[in-house]
Design goal:
By secondary structure, this protein is α+β, with helices and mostly antiparallel strands. It has seven helices and three strands. It is elongated. The chain starts with a helix and ends with a helix.
Length: about 180
């Protein structure tokens, strides 16, 4: 009986410590009174990808974290789309997809996903804004990534397996991509 009381007390104290830590964690973020221009009309810069994110919460730090996560998720989709445009998948230009082509396609898809993960780890938050709305906060985030760093990371991923890289180079689309990046 006593051990249950001690356990409940320990859990309660731990929960209070966590809540107190979260309450003091709010980071300074510029307040805005209207939706920021950079959110509605993100910058356009050669070689860069800009993506916005937004979220609402009763806690400032949660709103900002959710907005950041939304922007990062959208950035991942955008980077994968950039790679897909540059490197059409095997199925789009191979009449009969054999096991070898499927293996190349999977390798290429994994390289794109891995390069995306690496680049997202170094994502830059370009702008932030917080709009208080009653008891809630609306957070706005603008993130950016260099396409050059993404393409270089993708090339690094593609070169991990020399045999597969050699096989991929025989593909005209991959060959064009390699020439563009190098």
């Amino acid at each position: 009986m006593r051990s249950k009381s001690v356990m409940r007390l320990a859990v309660g104290v731990t929960a209070l410590m966590i809540l107190a830590g979260c309450a003091g964690r709010e980071r300074p973020i510029p307040e805005v009174t209207i939706v920021p221009n950079w959110y509605t009309d993100p910058p356009s810069e050669s070689g860069m990808v800009y993506i916005t994110g937004t979220a609402r919460s009763q806690q400032q730090n949660i709103a900002e974290d959710l907005a950041t996560n939304n922007a990062i998720l959208d950035m991942a989709k955008s980077l994968e789309a950039h790679a897909s445009v540059l490197i059409p998948y095997q199925s789009s230009f191979t009449k009969a997809i054999d096991d070898s082509s499927r293996e190349e396609q999977r390798y290429l898809e994994n390289a794109i996903k891995n390069a995306t993960k690496v680049v997202l780890a170094d994502i830059t938050i370009a702008e932030r804004g917080l709009k208080p709305e009653g008891k809630e906060f609306q957070a706005y985030i603008l993130v950016r990534v260099s396409l050059e760093s993404f393409y270089q990371e993708l090339m690094s991923e593609l070169r991990r397996d020399e045999n597969m890289y050699d096989r991929l180079q025989s593909n005209v689309f991959i060959e064009r991509f390699i020439k563009k990046v190098e």
